[in-house]
Amino acid sequence: MKVAGARLKLSQVNKFYGDTQVLKDIHLEINPGEMVCFLGPSGCGKTTLLRIIAGLEQQSSGQLWQGENEITKAAVKERDFGIVFQSYALFPNMTISDNIAFGLRSQKASRSLIKERVSELLSLVGLVQHALKYPSQISGGQQQRVALARALAPAPGLLLLDEPLSALDAQVRQHLRTEIRQLQQSLGVTTILVTHDQEEALTMADRIVVMNHGVIEQVGTPEEIYNQPASAFVASFIGSMNFLRVEQQPGNLVSIAGQQLALPKPWPSNQPLMLAIRPENIGLAAPNNQLPLAVIQQVEFLGSFVRLELRLDGQKLKVDLDSKEALQYDLTPGKQLAVRLPSSDLHCFAA
Amino acid sequence: MLHRLRQEATWLNLLLLSGLVGLMVVLVMPLYSLFVRSLYNRRGEFVGLDNYLSYLTSGGITGSAWNSFWVAIVSMLIVVTFAFAAAYALSRTKIAGKGLVRLLLTLPILAPSLLPAISLIYLFGNQGILKHWLMGASIYGPIGIILGSVFWTFPHALMILLTALSQADARQYEAAQSLKASPWRTFWTVTIPSARYGLVSAAFVVFTLVITDFGVAKVIGGNFNVLATDIYRNVIGQQRFEMGAVIGVILLLPAILAFAADRWVQKKQAAALSARSVPYQPKDSLKTKILGFGLLTPSIFFILLVIGMAVYASFLTYWPYNRSFTLNNYDFVRFDPAGWTPYFNSLKMATMTMVIGTLMIFVNAWLVERCPQPKWLRNLYQLLALLPMAVPGLVLGLAYIFFFNHPQNPLNNLYGGLLLMAICSLVHFYSVAHLTSVTALKQLDPEFEAVGDSLKSSRTGLFARLTLPLSLPAILDVALYLFVNAMTTVSAVVFIYGHNSRLASIMIMSLEEAGGTAAAAALSVIIMLTCAAAKILHSLLMMLVNAKHNAWKGKVQTSQEKSSTAKSRKLAWLWRKAPANQGA
Q1: Residue A314 has pLDDT above 70, yes or no
Q2: Do B445 and A89 touch (CB under 8 A)?
Q3: Cβ of B175 under 8 Å from any chain A Cβ?
Q4: What is the predicted pLDDT for the residue at B579?
Q5: How far is the alpha carbon of A93 from chain B, nearest alpha carbon, in Å?
Q6: Complex ipTM, two decimals?
Q7: Ordered structural domains, chain A, with CATH
Q8: Nearest CA among A73, A72, A22 for reference residue A47
Q9: In total, how many domains does chain B have?
Q10: What is the DSSP letter of B337?
């Protein structure tokens, strides 16, 4: 039961609430069969954007297309999507089967078709034995799957998931992540997932749309977003990142703690610059005079790795170190270490 | 398909619009006619505020208005004190038979406000058995009005205070205990502050009910004039409609004031409730049991005394000389040629109010709460739905005379009929029913409609399959509330009944006036029994509904319910089950 998804296209979408602009000039294309995550802190506009795509909210300006159809002004019912909310909004007075069958019934599908489709979905989400129970009689994770099955039952071209896992505890969440991703891939349904959880986005998405203050900061695969953050916000929001003030020098060089570093890419010398590097990309060495020296401030043992907080040139620097590797060094606070900041792992952002 | 969907949205807008127009016709326009009428003299000439001036100079303000005011204040103080004591005992002590006690204490809601007045005459009147308790003072006058008002407004205050007190946070008490505060200090620093909004709210509700009530003052007021009886005398006695209109407008003021204050309190309270708290568990000690018993006794005694006396008197041959048992007082034909007809009129009228009212109020609440509507329409409807709370029944009834009895009004032929009385009653009791419906609808997941739309269900389909079944308890509550109130109301209908549409509550008044006090007591008892039967039927239906709902109500639902009881003070009027922790 592969579902053919349609390409979704948003152009110049803006949204105002009174005087405040919550979405600014949003352009986005989502390919058929793709899983896209809208990721950002709360209040960044990701949920508003999802609701505009669903037609639950009206954009102030801009156009939307689903395949060949322009849906800019279409009512909710005229759009082709299924949706799962954070609260699931399961119908409490209907059994699991009746919940799943709801959309098919309102489309006046034949009795036999409904029966067939419901049992197909029940086995797909692994709830066959719960078919006749009511939503309150099953666990949160199971409720989540019912909501998913209900949304998928009429075979929509687009699946919208609004923070679908945030009401669940960590273990169930992890398990469901994989399950939803597998389901989505096997069905090939175009899916948009709204989340504020970067781990969720990184593990589930084909592409991530990082949003902040109503604008799209970056669109890219999880690897691109992590390894080549397009802005300081993306760099700081996803994963852990050190930001360092440096002195700019001619010839694409900078200096920190008296040592020169080569920039990974040319940077105009008249524009102030900030370097960024992830804690796990920093190398350590015994103090020497080729590398900048830092002082250990704090040591945190986190099982498989050790997180060090160093002071480099008066600035805080976090370094993640493999637990085994950590044994080579004397990690007493106050001791000095040399740090290696590989050029290829450096990111440059305007200060 | 698309066409049909667009049509549905338009249709839903039009439906609410028609509800709004309906409220305009049966609420706003009559009130407007009342106001206009107060500006014209008897010959129909515009005189501006002259009528008001002549009412003021003739001593209306120093007389009736002052009387109304202080009587309402005294009644309010008494009711709030005793209701608070009773609510405290019910929520903070572990006494046996709480369910029964609550039932007893809310019994007055089932009786017309005329019942306590009649009963008080038997108790403390010229031939009263307990006349000596008054030590020479007369029951006919302020004492009678205050005692009667205390009786019938008590349950209203009790319900509000029970809700307020049962929202106690156990952790505050634990904190007070760990800081070595004495029980007395804990009471003043924890209990009273946490119930303050409830106290204010109860005070305003009782004040408004008393100042706008007509029944008690009519029967037992004697020569003591209050605003409500002033209106009646001017309109019915002297046919001075313009003066009636003037007093009606004056009577709107305290009610509107109290209404505004109550809304303000509600807002404050809602904000105070959002914090999570641990429910308070009353301690099980002999000391608190004795305290609880002591706090409840006066209220229970008074209520049982009043009801008991009315029932007892209704079976006596001739008070106080012949105390042999008889059923003659229930044979109303002996006292009034209409016999039992007014009772059946009441039954019909209350049923009409219930059926039309429940349908109209719930559907409109659904339209305004769960369907897309233009903002202006939504706001205007909500305003009009709350307005009746600020309009005393007597004023509404008077307004109905001016509007519906006008020869040029095409609805003129409704005047004097049961249907118009049903409409008047349902408008009079609209706001509480509306708020109950809205509260229930707000508790449903806000995304239900979004899910329904995405699954291509029509709004009406979703209403039938989801909203309606989930809201059945609230709908039953609204139906009972409308029935009981329509059955017992005097003030809303006293001006608009016709020859063939006299109601039981009106007949109680005329029986009492004509000296058939025992028959008046008997008819009051009959009304009370009818309301009790309705309440029992309601409980049975509720059990059926709950049995069905329990099938799909798991843990999730009960925790939701707990938080919702906090919000639903309006539901408390209807004896909904135990707010929070007094379910034991």
Answers
A1: yes
A2: yes
A3: no
A4: 33
A5: 6
A6: 0.83
A7: 8-237 (3.40.50.300), 242-350 (2.40.50.100)
A8: A22
A9: 1
A10: T
Tell me whether B461 touches chain A (CB under 8 Å): yes
CATH number for position B155: 1.10.3720.10
Q: Is the pLDDT of residue B155 over 50?
A: yes
* Torsional sign, CA A145, A120, B467, B364: positive
Q: Are B49 and B126 in contact (CB under 8 A)?
A: no
Q: Coil, helix or strand for A190?
A: strand
A153 neighbourhood in chain B, CB within 8 Å: 455
Question: How would you classify the pairing of strands A253-256 and A259-262?
Answer: antiparallel
Give the Cα separation of B127 and A234 in Å (integer).
Answer: 89
Question: What is the per-residue pLDDT for B570?
Answer: 40
Q: How far is A40 from chain B (nearest CA, A)?
A: 22
B7 interface with A at CB cutoff 8 Å:
no
pLDDT beyond 50 at A270: yes
Report the candidate in A137, A140, A104 with the shortest Cα–Cα distance to residue A120: A104
**A344: its two tokens:** 């290829």
Give B 512-551 residues with CB within 8 A of chain A: 549, 551
Chain B contact probe: residue of A76, A78, A80, A93 with most B CBs at under 10 A: A93
Residues 6+ apart with CB under 8 A from B192: B199
> What's the DSSP call for residue A32?
T
Which residues of chain A does B9 touch, with a Cβ-Cβ cutoff of 8 Å?
75
- Closest Cα of chain A to B450: distance in Å? 7
* pLDDT value at residue B575: 38
Q: Tell which residue, B121, B342, B134, B316, has the closest CA to residue B218.
A: B121
Mean pLDDT in residue range B141-165: 92
B553–A54 C-beta distance less than 8 A: no
In a domain, B36, yes or no: no
Both tokens assigned to B126:
């010229």
* Cα–Cα distance measured from residue A200 to residue A156, given in angstroms and rounded to the nearest whole number: 23
Q: Is the pLDDT of residue B569 over 50?
A: no
A94: chain B residues, CB-CB within 8 Å: 465-466, 552
Within 8 A by CB and 6+ apart from B23, the residues are B381, B384, B385, B427, B430
Task: Please check whether residue B404 lies inside any domain of the structure.
Answer: yes
Closest CA of chain B from A100, distance in Å: 10
**Per-chain mean pLDDT for chain A:** 92
Phi/psi for B47 (5° steps) reads -125, 10
Which of A77, A118, A137, A159 to mutate to test binding with chain B, by most B CBs within 10 Å of its CB?
A77
Q: How far is CA A261 from CA A97, A240, A316, B314, in A?
A: 64, 22, 18, 105
Per-residue confidence (pLDDT) for residue B574, from 0 to 100:
40
Domain extent, residue B416, equals 69-226+256-273+286-577
Are the Cβ atoms of A102 and B445 closer than 8 angstroms? no
Residue B384 lies in a domain: yes
Within an 8 Å CB–CB cutoff, is residue B283 touching chain A? no
Cα–Cα dist B441/B437, whole Å: 6
Measured CA to CA, the distance from residue B1 to residue B456 in angstroms comes to 11
Question: Are B5 and A75 inside 8 Å of each other by CB?
Answer: yes
Contact (CB, 8 A) for A147 and A84: yes
Alpha-carbon gap, residue B199 to B43, rounded angstroms: 47
* Least Cα separation, residue A82 to chain B (angstroms): 6
The reply to whether B4 falls in a domain is no
Tell me whether A103 touches chain B (CB under 8 Å): yes
A239-249 pLDDT, tens digit per residue, is 999 999 988 88
pLDDT at A211 over 90: yes
Q: Which of residues 440-459 of B touch A (CB under 8 A)?
A: 445, 447-448, 450-458
Per-residue pLDDT tens for B463-495?
A: 999 999 999 999 999 999 999 999 999 888 999
CA B267 to chain centroid, in Å, comes to 21
